[in-house]
Automatic annotation (TrEMBL), chain A:
GO process terms (BP): tRNA wobble uridine modification
Encoding gene, per UniProt annotation: ELP6
A GO CC annotation given for this chain: elongator holoenzyme complex
Family per record: Belongs to the ELP6 family.
UniProt xrefs under InterPro entries: ELP6, P-loop_NTPase
Name of this chain's protein: Elongator complex protein 6
Matches recorded under Pfam families: ELP6 (PF09807)
UniProtKB/TrEMBL annotation, chain B:
Record GO cellular component, one term: cytoplasm
Keyword terms of this UniProt record: Cytoplasm, Nucleus, tRNA processing
Keyword Glycoprotein: no
Involved pathway(s): tRNA modification; 5-methoxycarbonylmethyl-2-thiouridine-tRNA biosynthesis
Name used for this protein in its record: Elongator complex protein 4
Location of the protein in the cell: Cytoplasm; Nucleus
Organism: Erpetoichthys calabaricus
Top-rank taxon, per record: Eukaryota
A Pfam family it matches: PAXNEB
Record-stated family: Belongs to the ELP4 family.
Gene Ontology biological process terms, A to Z: tRNA wobble uridine modification
InterPro entries per the UniProt record, alphabetical: Elongator_complex_protein_4, P-loop_NTPase
Length: 255, 401
């Protein structure tokens, strides 16, 4: 595991009511999702994970105790919406109902998140603050959701999770910056403004390399805007069981 | 021609997860081993590997301009399925699936007995080790670079060779379980479609779902039926023939139809024992953002650029090859990493009996009087890269300038 990343990110007093943005471009940043998922589960937080792009077994994490992790498997649920059995509308509101009725917004998805994370009396004593993890938000845009609806959804989630319950929210957005995907650019810019910790993962400009998988930039925003943002840049290589971080240009393959 | 699974199960490190693993970054070993002919477990992520891919995987091939080589790749993919006795599904809007079936290349049956194969591999390894004796004079700094290993020798006959000039005989594919989907012949749907996804895609999705469920590829079937892999080949998805307009307009009406279809397809693949290869005419898609979204929704994306009719034909570097292979995305399934190739600059050539994908490298630029690393050396160092992105390219210690 990476001591540097832990130092800059995982100080628990700092991660309290925070909105974290993970952005990936030209590479795969899912190792960050794995990191945050296991980090929060180990910290005894109750986690609601919207896994929209991979099946559950991909994340290969099982929560410590029953009820700690609420995993929403988007892929499985989508088929009921895309290929409905009958014409009649469902009795219960479905989280991915926007797939079936495109003009609707993400209200149902938010209701799902809210009900998963709202703490009952029992919950409050068992778990630390709730966490919402989303992998990945740009898929919603690919499926035809309006960017405004996506931003509304994020806003509601932030209010419910970060403000009301002092929980944390971690969102992954995938954007290839040179493709001119305006919807995605819009969402990414808005989230960049709203988030207090931003981890940007970028493939190397020089192209694919076996020993250095990419570059990661961490940006901590000062809450009260009194100081300048802390920014750190590392390069990284993903291994079987973890990730190693090093200063740019100091990969072990080069030294 | 199916690979005997016995040779694979002897490997002690084989890990296969049928259910979920435990903590993150840790792979759990299971004693249950699904033995399906033509597959082997991957050591990295516990998935079943099929030659040309992993199950539950979605391959997208960006077509070359005349759809010649991408069509070839699709045929190889399907032919491999027949040879391994997998079931397969062909979906097409233009050519009838039966015609595609007729045009599959014939497998090259090897009459070479097993010990011969061992000898051939041994000989190759000897060649490689002789090379290492010559020390390098000018570029001595690179002497210590590790040699790239021949993966082919280690993994013993996974994948087959096909003769592109011969067609597969009818007896070979008669016994295979084959599910064709030909869009113009499909009947009208009963239910109204309100999810704003093009009706052709809905029909195809329903059809695939039906096959998966009926034939039990989604593991819902009882143990009595032997499990098999379903290979799905979809030709020219997104083209006008499917009714989609992303190839005609910059601001299409059905902008999200293809991505919704791919999302549904991904859901189906992840919950079943199937692999899918799709070819997409990406050069026709006007809006680049759409292709970006498609790439994001697929596991592996490979672009094929053929040199047919382009000025690159004249370039010396490319004269041995028929085109370029550009690996745009590699899958990260069930693990943090994937099998990484050394480089993503690859080129391909289609010979009668072989579709070869090689590392693209510049031969050293020597003047005419000195003998250069000639074609013979290059040919020796080429290796058949299986159609998935998994295998690393091999070769001698070539320097990439």
């Amino acid at each position: 595991r990476s001591p540097e990343l832990l130092f800059y990110v995982d100080t628990t007093e700092q991660l309290f009511g925070q909105c974290v943005l993970l952005s990936e471009s030209k590479t795969d940043g899912s190792f960050l999702i794995h990191h945050f998922l296991s980090f929060f589960l180990k910290a005894q937080c109750k986690v609601c994970f919207l896994g929209l792009v991979q099946s559950f077994s991909h994340y290969s994490t099982v929560a410590r105790e029953k009820g700690q992790l609420v995993f929403f498997e988007g892929l499985r649920n989508s088929l009921d919406m895309l290929l409905p059995e009958s014409d009649a509308s469902d009795a219960e509101p479905q989280p991915l109902s926007f797939l079936r009725w495109p003009s609707t917004d993400l209200r149902n998805l938010f209701d799902f998140v809210n009900s998963s994370l709202s703490q009952s009396e029992n919950d409050m004593s068992r778990w630390a603050s709730p966490v919402l993890l989303i992998d990945d938000l740009s898929v919603l845009l690919s499926l035809g959701v309006n960017p405004t609806a996506v931003l509304d959804f994020i806003h509601y989630c932030r209010m419910a999770v970060c403000s009301k319950q002092q929980g944390n929210m971690v969102t992954l957005v995938h954007n290839e910056d040179d493709l001119g995907d305006e919807d995605c650019d819009l969402v990414l810019h808005a989230l960049t403004h709203q988030s207090s910790l931003i981890l940007q993962v970028h493939g190397l400009n020089t192209g694919y390399c076996r020993d250095v998988h990419g570059q990661i930039q961490l940006r901590w925003k000062d809450k009260f805007q009194l100081k300048r943002d802390h920014t750190h840049v590392f390069q990284y290589k993903v291994h079987d069981k973890g990730v190693s971080f090093f200063a740019p240009g100091t990969s072990s393959a080069v030294l | 021609m199916a690979i005997p699974v016995q040779s694979m199960t002897g490997i002690s490190n084989a890990r296969l997860n049928v259910e979920m693993n435990t903590t993150s970054f840790q792979k759990k070993s299971r004693s249950k081993l699904l033995s399906i002919p033509g597959t082997r477990p991957s050591f990295q992520n516990g998935q079943l590997l099929v030659s040309t891919g992993t199950t539950s995987l979605d391959y997208v091939i960006e077509e070359d301009v005349f759809d010649s080589y991408s069509h070839m790749l699709l045929k190889y993919f399907l032919a491999e399925g027949i040879v391994c006795s997998h079931s397969f599904l062909i979906a097409s809007a233009g050519e009838h699936p039966d015609d595609i079936l007729q045009g599959l290349p014939a497998p090259v049956l090897d009459d070479v007995p097993k010990d011969e194969i061992g000898k051939i591999n041994q000989r190759r390894e000897n060649d490689v080790s002789e090379e290492s004796q010559d020390s390098m004079k000018i570029a001595w700094r690179y002497q210590n670079q590790p040699k790239v290993q021949t993966v082919l020798a280690a993994s013993s006959r996974f994948g087959h060779y096909y003769d592109a000039s011969k067609q597969m005989s009818a007896e070979t594919f008669e016994s295979a379980e084959y599910y064709p989907f030909y869009l113009p012949a499909e009947v009208h749907l009963k239910y109204s479609v309100s999810s704003n996804i093009h009706i052709g895609y809905i029909k195809l999705l329903r059809f695939i779902q039906g096959v998966i469920h009926k034939e039990g590829f989604d593991r819902a079937c009882p143990q009595s039926k032997t499990r098999n892999i379903l290979r799905i080949g979809i030709h020219s998805l997104g083209s006008v023939l499917w009714g989609d307009d992303i190839c005609c307009k910059d601001d299409p009406l059905y902008a999200y139809s293809l991505t919704k279809f791919l999302y549904g397809l991904r859901g189906l693949l992840r919950t079943s024992l199937s692999v899918c290869m799709v070819t997409v005419p990406s050069h026709l898609i006007q809006n680049k953002a759409i292709m970006g979204r498609v790439t994001n929704l697929c596991d592996t994306v490979i672009g094929i650029k053929s040199f047919n009719g382009s000025e690159k034909d004249a370039n010396d570097l490319y004269k041995d090859y028929h085109g370029l292979v550009c690996v745009k995305k590699i899958p990260y399934l069930n693990s943090l990493i994937c099998e990484l190739p050394d480089t993503r600059d690859l080129a391909f050539k289609l010979k009668r009996k072989q579709f070869t994908i090689e590392r693209l490298h510049l031969p050293p630029d020597l003047s005419d009087t000195v003998s250069r690393l000639n074609k013979q050396d290059l040919a020796e160092s080429s290796k058949l890269l299986r159609m998935g992105c998994g295998a690393a390219a091999t070769g001698k210690k070539h320097l990439d300038f």
